[in-house]
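User: I'm curious whether this sequence folds into something compact or stays loose and floppy. Could you predict its structure so I can see for myself?
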Amino acid sequence: MAEHHEMMGGKLHVYRRENSAKWQCSTYLSGKNWRVSTKEDSLSHAKDFAEDWYLELKGKSRAGQIRVGKTFQQAADKFLMEYEVITAGERSQRYIEGVAIRLKVHLLPFFGKKVLSEITPGLVQEYRIHRATSTKNKKTGETMKPARSTLLQEIVVLRQVLKTATRHGWLQYLPDISMPYKTSGKITHRAWFSPGEYKRLYEATRERAKNPKNQRWKRNCEQMHDYVLFMANTGLRPDEAGRLEFRDVAIVTDEATGERILEIEVRGKRGIGYCKSMVGAVRPFERLQNRNKPQPTDRIFGKTQRELFNTILDELKLKFDRDGNRRTSYSLRHTYICMRLMEGADIYQIAKNCRTSVEMIEKYYASHIKNTLDAAAINVRKPKPLLKNKTIKFVSKEDE
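Assistant: Here's the prediction. I'll summarize afterward.
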């Protein structure tokens, strides 16, 4: 330091660094060092600022308004370090990166400098309001409210960071950060292709494979056609299909039906699972084998061709369903589940084959499939009671 002056009996320091023209001040109070720039070039003005700042800080300390301790930034750093180690092999690297991105982009700018004890239910509610009002569309200038699921994921990460702080004794208790008003949202079905729309889709991809707009794209169009058929007949998630290698798939004859199907060893978000395909997946898989001449460890699809898939959907006007839900390659999985339900397949067996839960299928798929409703079970009527003690008079022809 080039210059240094003490005030308040040595409790307050005013100094200027060698490479700066501005004076700064510092003090030690409530178990913590406090520093701030006076933003003054003049020493006398800097001392006046420092004295006012010190007295104000001391007054807050006496009133119990100063909170000291670990910050949210420190707890977030600790959480990320632990989370990546503990979940190694159980969570994908992409998922862990997503958690880090939510922290860096949204949570840390808002909570980062806050002391952990300052993070109250009221502050978390302010964060929800901030997220709902702070993002603007660059083209239209309209406010872009995040999706309910997006905000829920951010709150989950926030809770995990606070739990980390609680485990290490940096926070005495976990605050209630649940949604104070709206406790449940409208359950909407997942975007899928109805049987008629699915037929239009695979007919379009088949035509594109036979007659591509450019011969250089022929192989990509053929791959896309087989991808659509394969996904709609297996119910795989896009990330599961992306990891799938040729050695993970076997063509077998099913003992129960006598039909040729695929037995697939799936590696995805639920670990290793198994899937038995519909008959319609066999021929696309055989074409993929013949076209690619693969090694057993080669991936069947690899990265999804999103641009080509979206182009075809736009041409068919199928990018959005009637409720405005956006269709993606994930919609092929939803189509598989819905069609199996429409055919009367057992919901438990569908859940096992798709590596999900019965609850998820009932919540997001079965609720809008009319075939899952049993009219015979719904339209039950009580039998009409028999007439008792009613005298029936027979009249002969002679009495008429």
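Summary: The CA atoms of residues 139 and 234 lie 40 Å apart. The mean pLDDT is 87.
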